[in-house]
Design brief:
Helix content is 43%, strand content 28%. By secondary structure, it is an alpha+beta fold. It has two domains: 2-86; 90-130, no CATH class. The strands form two sheets. A four-stranded antiparallel beta sheet has the order 1-2-4-3. A two-stranded antiparallel ribbon has the order 5-6. A hairpin with a 2-residue loop joins strand 3 (51-53) and strand 4 (56-62). The longest helix has 18 residues, at 88-105. The chain starts with a strand and ends with a strand. The model has no long low-confidence stretch (mean pLDDT 92). This is DUF1828 domain-containing protein. Pfam families: DUF1828. Residues 2-80 form the DUF1828 domain.
């Protein structure tokens, strides 16, 4: 976290793009079709009065409010870091676990990760095969 003190007495606190860059470097895309993820990010930022611009988080304050504003920025950084659970592989795993639990609770017979080879050139893969 960086503090930039201005001549007029205001202070800009920023993460210099670290939080969002950290997510993207771990495989969580916030661009393209990631509308829901961007909405979650914006909700986090808005909930604590922090701004997000060009991939960086920042907030303006004065010396009197510096400790509480710094705490708010840290909370935003931690909440954004928690978004790592929204990575595609984790979301898919959670979804398939939920589907499996639902099928078991309804006593529906199924086979997981089913692979069927019909002749040498024709194969079928299915995550769930219902029996």
């Amino acid at each position: 976290m960086y503090d930039e003190f201005h001549k007029n007495g205001s202070i800009t606190l920023t993460d210099d793009g670290w939080a969002i860059d950290n997510l993207e470097s771990q495989g969580l895309s916030l661009s393209g079709n990631a509308k829901t993820r961007r909405k979650i990010l914006q909700d986090i930022v808005d909930s604590l009065g922090v701004e997000c611009h060009d991939g960086g988080l920042f907030v303006m304050t004065d010396v009197e409010h510096l400790p509480e504003v710094k705490q708010r920025l840290l909370q935003v950084i931690m909440k954004i870091n928690d978004m790592i659970v929204l990575r595609d592989d984790k979301v898919k795993n959670m979804f398939f676990e939920d589907v499996e639990e639902f099928l078991k609770s309804k006593e529906i017979l199924f086979e997981k990760n089913f692979h069927l080879l019909v002749k040498a050139e024709l194969s079928f893969n299915s995550i769930f095969l219902f029996l």
